[in-house]
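Quick question: what would this complex look like in 3D?
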Amino acid sequence: MDGDSTLSLVLFSGTDDKLNAAAILSVGAAAMGRPVHLFLQYWALDAFRTDRIARYHGSAPEAGPAGDALLRGSLEGPKHWSALLRQAKDVGDVRIHACALSMELFGITQADLDPLVDDVEGVAAFMGDAADGPITFI
Amino acid sequence: MTLTRMQPTRSIDARGMACPGPLLTLIGAIRQGQVGDVIEVLSSDAGSRTDIPAWVAKAKQELVGVVEEEGYARFMVRKTK
């Protein structure tokens, strides 16, 4: 399964619904043999902090109270986005990068982040990872 | 031999597992298996009906057959490489 195009996602939002959607896309792409690069900025980066990754991060505004309750009940164990991303890394080539500028903004280092995060990168390096392919912002 | 009577090398009951769990379980079993092995996966996840054939085609394995059962499907996949 070579010659496959890279899936490049910028994760900006830190709500669990968007992180879950991104994790599902990642695991599917990885299973299909596509390299995956995730670039974590702002609130998505914040959600990857070791001391915060397991807590509930809320839902997008359109979820409303009913949608929020539905989401809350759907994040246990293997259904949580962090578990899906671990599976994605097991099955394929998935790299997770923390945005250097967002790290600086929050005053954190890689030691504050879950081991799912591979490294800290600047935006130009991420553009290199994306290898001239499309980039999706979530 | 008909598909319903075919004996798989290994059978995995992934019923109740959420998407994409059954597919990932199949991928793991194919990777661990020997060429020629037939892996059977039972899945109640609706996504498997599209995902397992899509992966098998992409990974150039062989979909021996799909049998619809009551509330789940049985996928038979042969490891070709």
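Answer marked as accepted. The first strand of chain B starts at residue 10 and ends at 13.
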